[in-house]
Amino acid sequence: MSFALIHGGAHGAWCWERLLPHLEGPALAVDLPGRGKKPAELDALCADDWARAVADDIEAAGLSRVVLVGHSLAGITIPRVLERVGERIAHAVFVSCCIPSEGQSIYEALAVETPGGSEIAPPSAGSSSIDPESARAWFCSDMDEEQTHFVLDRLCPEATRPMREPMRLAGLRRAVPRTYVKLLSDAILLPPMQDAFIRNAGPGCRVRELASGHNAMVSRPRELARILNEIAAEGPRQERR
Questions:
Q1: pLDDT, position 128
Q2: What is the residue range of 31's domain?
Q3: Do 152 and 140 touch, CB atoms closer than 8 A?
């Protein structure tokens, strides 16, 4: 079984660096368009561009039995990847993902005041950056200084059009097993918010809990890898209930 890893907003494939050595199988960490090996005009990107990039990378790598893992903002990408290459996906894993309801945008789903003191609201431009103070509060709440700088020094501007688009959940109607990894100390997607997103992941979504802040792949890589390895080891035996 192989892993395909999708990062969240303002991140890149780099965020999985500390997790990769602990995975018990080949792993593909994808850069979404607009960063890393895939430069792009952020203003022009849409959610389908993100999904197409992931599907193309999976196909180019020749992966056929994939544990598809997404983090945070990847909750809007995973269902669209399932539309494109669902036959290649053995299991979908949402790590503290935002999964809006059908037709709801990310900004509508996150129209709350966060513990960092900043409201997550639509910016006027087609791209946005997170100020360091908010990023530290949201992403690094359980990290030491070395881990914190690993994250803050690599954050990048993000396209905002995908976060304005209506959510499309059609891909989650495919008979693909799925698990939501609920992060109990998440400082941006609080546990009650994650519970709502778990419901949107559809019937039969299992839940695994991890005592971690938002970026578990950095602060708790071994523990998160253990969960992912256990999911991969189950193989095709799990069916949706």
A1: 77
A2: 2-237
A3: yes
